[in-house]
Amino acid sequence: MANVWLQIKRRIWTAENGYALALCLVAIVVLILTSDQAPQWIYQGF
Fold first, then answer.
1. pTM for the full model?
2. What SS3 class is residue 39?
């Protein structure tokens, strides 16, 4: 059973998937850090 999980991990965790995951995490962190306040256009109608 452990051998099956190891094969699945090896098949899913490739270099490309690792790079894609890292890029996604960096984009999320940048999005969180740069959105310190809400944009003003949301509140123009109120």
1. 0.58
2. coil
